[in-house]
Design a protein that fits this description.
Layout lengths: L1 E5 L2 H22 L6 H9 L4 E7 L2 E12 L4 E10 L2 H18 L4 E3 L4 H8 L15
Length: 138
C-alpha cells in the first residue's frame, strides 16, 4: 500500500486515468449532481482540489479527491469523493499517512458530506457525526 498525492500536473496526467474508474461510481451513484468526473479533474488540474491514489505497484486500488476549506478558526480537508476496493485492509495505515500530510499543510480536521453508509464506515476510523446536511432545491 502506497499513497501517492497527485500534486503536480505531471503526476495528475500520469495517474488520473487509473484513478477515474474508482471515482466514477461515487459521481454516478453517491454524489447528487454536485460535480462530474470532469469537474473533479479540472479542480485537481487547477489545484483547487487534490487527488490521492493508493497503489499496489502500478495498480490503483483506491482513489480520493479532497479540497481544503478555510474556516475562520480551522482549516479542514473536505473529502469530496472516495472509491475503490480493499479499503479495510489499507484504511488504518492510509489515515496515518494522510493525517501527517494534511497536518503539514495546516489542516486540523477532515470532514465529508456523505451517505449514511459512508458515514458509518468513516466512524470506524475516528470520524464523528458533526452536522446534518439539509438541502432545498430552488
Amino acid at each position: 500500500m502506497k499513497p501517492l498525492f497527485l500534486t503536480t500536473s505531471e503526476l495528475l496526467e500520469a495517474w488520473w486515468s487509473r484513478a477515474e474508474p474508482h471515482l466514477l461510481p461515487v459521481v454516478n451513484e453517491a454524489a447528487r449532481g454536485e460535480f462530474s468526473i470532469e469537474d473533479l479533474y479540472i479542480l485537481c488540474k487547477e489545484k483547487r482540489a487534490t487527488c490521492v491514489v493508493i497503489t499496489e505497484g502500478d495498480i490503483v486500488t483506491l482513489a480520493a479527491v479532497f479540497e481544503f476549506i478555510y474556516y475562520p478558526k480551522i482549516t479542514a480537508c473536505n473529502v469530496m469523493a472516495m472509491g475503490g476496493s480493499g479499503w479495510d485492509s489499507v484504511a488504518e495505515q492510509f489515515f496515518i499517512t494522510f493525517k501527517e500530510w494534511l497536518y503539514g499543510m495546516g489542516v486540523t480536521v477532515i470532514e465529508a458530506s456523505c451517505s449514511s453508509v459512508m458515514s458509518r464506515l468513516l466512524r470506524r476510523y475516528g470520524f464523528a457525526k458533526t452536522y446534518e446536511v439539509v438541502r432545498l432545491s430552488i
